Amino acid sequence: MICTDELYLVKCVVLYMDFSNKIYRRWFTQGTIGILMTGAGISMVIKAGFYKHTHPDNWKWIAAGTVSLIVLMSGLVLFVDSIRYRIRYEDEVRDKNDKR
């Protein structure tokens, strides 16, 4: 479903969620998890930076920083990869509407 009426565009965007479509579900879940992991990774990087200044053993803050960077980068990869599924979903909907 593509909303073409400008008056109802906002209503269509907010109310229309096509969870029956496998590609849409993949985009939604992967994008959501990616954004959450990105936010958590940023928070963990900041926390590891502050932890460094409390003068713990070197391996402790290095391990904390490494894990936080892994979470941050994984979140970014998931989010950027989810864009591919959104494009595939929109192409599928456009093709379905063109056949009508």
Question: How would you characterize the overall build of this protein?
Answer:
- The protein is an all-alpha fold.
- The protein has one domain (18-99).
- Helices cover 80% and strands 0% of the residues.
- It is built from three helices and no strands.
- Helix 2 (22-52) runs antiparallel to helix 3 (58-99).
- The radius of gyration is 20 Å and the shape is rod-shaped.
- The N and C termini lie close together (12 Å).
- The mean pLDDT is 86.
Short summary of the structure?
With 100 residues, the chain is an all-alpha fold. It contains 3 helices and no strands. The model has no long low-confidence stretch (mean pLDDT 86).
SSE layout:
Layout: H1 9-15, H2 22-52, H3 58-99
Helix pairs in contact: 2-3
> Roughly how much helix do the residues carry, as a percent range?
over 70%
N- to C-terminal separation?
Answer: 12 Å
- What are the segments in which pLDDT stays under 50 over at least 5 consecutive residues? none
Number of helices: 3
* H/E element order: HHH
Strand content: under 5%
Rounded average pLDDT: 86
